[in-house]
């Protein structure tokens, strides 16, 4: 299958926009373990997964990792082009969890077409909302599950001390 078969709003773009995308997309392959994007100093572009699996995570100063989401076939990653979104204030690392084939859409090309195309802007907003929901779910799991375990451990310790 071709790029257009993986890009959901392809048929809603103008012929000129399709041509511009087709001329600028880059096809890449990553082996399991390869780091594809590292932090905000790297504005790779948007990643559209053809086949494989990537993991997006944040890394603490102490070296701890938190996976914020995984990218599978036909998923698109906006955060690898965080330079086009000035309100993004965190660094994300993306690595291949499996051998992966993907396309890179240069950030400047995507941003230009998005400014011209309401369907592409809506699609981008939907992706951003979905990723935001995934991250919020993760934060809830970390905060509340961790808090619940701390409370449970405290109660167990208090009960054990009374026995």
UniProtKB/TrEMBL annotation:
It comes from the Bacteria. Residues 28-116 form the Cyclic nucleotide-binding domain. InterPro entries: cNMP-bd_dom, cNMP-bd_dom_sf, RmlC-like_jellyroll. This is Cyclic nucleotide-binding domain-containing protein. It comes from Candidatus Anaerostipes avistercoris. The lineage of its organism: Bacteria, Bacillati, Bacillota, Clostridia, Lachnospirales.
């Amino acid at each position: 299958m071709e790029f257009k078969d993986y890009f959901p709003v392809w048929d809603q773009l103008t012929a000129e926009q399709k041509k511009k995308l087709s001329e600028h997309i880059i096809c890449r392959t990553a082996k399991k373990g390869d780091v594809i994007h590292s932090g905000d100093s790297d504005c790779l572009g948007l990643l559209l997964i053809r086949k494989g699996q990537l993991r997006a995570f944040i890394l603490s100063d102490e070296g701890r990792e938190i996976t914020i989401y995984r990218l599978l076939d036909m998923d698109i990653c906006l955060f690898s082009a965080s330079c086009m979104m000035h309100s993004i204030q965190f660094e994300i690392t993306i690595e291949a969890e499996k051998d992966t084939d993907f396309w890179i859409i240069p950030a400047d090309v995507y941003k230009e077409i998005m400014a011209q195309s309401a369907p592409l802007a809506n699609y981008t907003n939907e992706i951003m909302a979905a990723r935001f929901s995934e991250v919020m779910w993760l934060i809830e799991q970390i905060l509340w599950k961790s808090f619940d375990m701390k409370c449970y451990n405290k109660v167990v310790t208090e009960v054990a001390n009374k026995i």
